[in-house]
Amino acid sequence: MPDTTPAPSTVLPSLRAQGERLIELGVHEIAGLTAAELRAFAEAAEASAGGDGALLAVHPDQAPASALAPLLRRDGKAGFVVTDMADVDLFTPLDTIALPVGPLYLLTGLDRGDHMANWSPDEALPALTAQARTPLLLTEGVHWVVQQPAVLERNHCFMTIGSRLRKANGALDARTPAIWISNGSGRDGRKRRNAPKVGWCWAGNRHTWLGFASAEGRRVQAGSVH
Question: Which one, 23, 88, 180, 220, has least CB within 10 Å?
């Protein structure tokens, strides 16, 4: 199995620091929580789980991608969702992904999936499953970049194929969400060059500059907010 140890530049802050970052950005208000509730969860989670390398995430039902993406920053520019993904919040977890009950939870063992660059989502998903890893949801990917902006690099961006859109007939939409850096071309506009970007790629296509973000094991609720 490939070494998934994060590089020093992508080591996460403590859970308490992550909680303060979310409060600073107003994520607790988006999620319908008080600052005290979010802070208590982060403190309890850090005390019980240690918090080493864990990511604090908000349930996507309470903090959707459309609300989180603008909080991303790179070179002083705000993140955005591409114009042809107006349905971004309809991308929900795959049936194989179980989220904890409650607004806040933890993920551990994050990996950007660089070793899967130039794989298609259709190829990457079964490989991650075979490694007992779980693909990140789009909102979880955004949380990761919010807490550790250095994880998003040119030529080393990532897909979040844990989130998919289901059509009316139950089949999966062929689009798979990803987070990368805008070149400022096309409908993005020149002013958005170098801004963090939430977009999508076809499930059967390969891209040399996109890995597949994943976590180890299952998502855990280790705090005090229910």
Answer: 220
- The average confidence (pLDDT) of the chain is 93
CB 79 within 8 A of CB 153: no
Q: What is the dihedral of CA 186, 188, 191, 196, to 10 degrees?
A: -130
What are 7's two structure tokens? 């590089």
What is the count of structural domains for the chain? 1
User: How far is Cα 44 from Cα 139, in angstroms, rounded to an integer?
Assistant: 22
Residue 99 lies in a domain: yes
Nearest to 63 by CA among 22, 14, 21, 97: 22
Question: Is the distance from CB of 54 to CB of 109 less than 8 angstroms?
Answer: no
Residue 163 belongs to some domain of the structure: yes
Distance CA 181, CA 165 (A): 23
**Tens-place pLDDT, residues 57-110:** 999 999 999 999 999 999 999 999 999 999 999 999 999 999 999 999 999 999
One-letter amino acid of 186: G
